[in-house]
Amino acid sequence: MMNALTHMSDIMIPMVIFWIVGYGMVSGVKVYETFLKGAKEGLRIVVEILPTLVGLMMAVGILRTSGFFDLLGHLIGPATQAVGLPAQLIPLLIVKMFSSSAATGLVLDIFKTCGPDSYAGMLTSILMSCTETIFYTMSVYFLAAKVTKTRYTLPGALLATLAGTVASIFLAGKM
Questions:
Q1: Which of 85, 122, 144, 165 has its CA 20 to 30 A from that of 17?
Q2: What's the whole-number mean pLDDT along residues 151-168?
Q3: Are the beta carbons of 94 and 136 closer than 8 angstroms?
């Protein structure tokens, strides 16, 4: 049974692609031309959002290299330690809101210093899955969709990140 499931998962994506192409052909859609039009639009969007992505990556790199995140962790670490959030995870929470790849670098640092099976290591793993790259996501998707009025997106995303952080602390405390 497992062997059949393994082989079935190998062919799922090609089957979906063939189904989409077949459905398009049956519906009378010029599939190849439509694909090229979509690819051209995708490249245009990449060119439009690239400066934003570069700016975000540079800002995170500068703040991390300058030691600002470490200073911030030392300043508010005693308060967060009281609720179960170690000081070395504060930079991770901040960086994760901007860049998941930069946060992954911090995760590796935490794993090296504390160990993946430590409380800080487990909390780090849970935090990475319970929080989102708020500013990256907002800048990329809103720029691509040309959204100018974000309304309650940022407060809602920050509240969701807070909820994910609280849930992560709770779950890591139970392990």
A1: 144
A2: 90
A3: no
